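ARCHIVE CARD
SHELF: 3
SLOT: left
DATA:
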Amino acid sequence: MTTHYVDLRVVPDPEFSTAQLLGALYDRLHLALVQQRLGNIGVSFPGYSLNPRALGNVLRLHGGGEILQDFLRTDWLKGMRDHTRLSEIAPAPADTLHRTVQRRQFKTNADRLRRRRMRRKGETEQQAADAIPGTVERRPNLPYVHLRSRSTGQPFCLFIALGPPVEEAIARQFNSYGLSGTATVPWF
């Protein structure tokens, strides 16, 4: 249950943008959640905004008090300590709403989709173009964090969407990014 939280605030740096630092911090979090096989820590972004599109400079971790304490004792912040400030672990406000924080994936590049189809189905460029028109492309206007795939090394955008606010918490598992389409976190 996400009864407690801790804020990790990205500190401004002349060499790196806030978005770059938030991406590096989130990448470390993802790696730690994978290595420790944790599905009981969720994330939120208190600075989340659609206009302008941004996640802000705070990554908030949600979980049980002891779970967060144990997690913060590990060395997962190695290399990021100079760029982040941690708050104390605190109970989430009792009277707050809850919501899901989830990943949204989009088909954003028709050429990439066509190349993939050509490789998978052995089609010609024309066959793939006929099967995948340019109209499949969607330009998402959600905030995102820029990450690099650990398996392929390719950069990608992890788009973050919020579910509607609900009164009651829903306790379920979070994925290795601390996201879920069903589990909620306190939203404040």
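SLOT: right
DATA:
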Amino acid sequence: MKKLMEKYAVFERAMNRDKVYLDLSFEEICSAIGADVETLDKLLLSEIGLGGQETVDFYRSKFC
């Protein structure tokens, strides 16, 4: 679980600081940070109520 939370933190930094949502899909972001797509998707859903691609789409709609 610790490694998963580390990947979650890396995802969060990539989204907020690096703005990867501008150019990459959720699957591409997961690949870039070395996270399993399904596992991170489930964690995002449980933590924030949005799946992975939904999170990327949300950022695009709010910050683009």
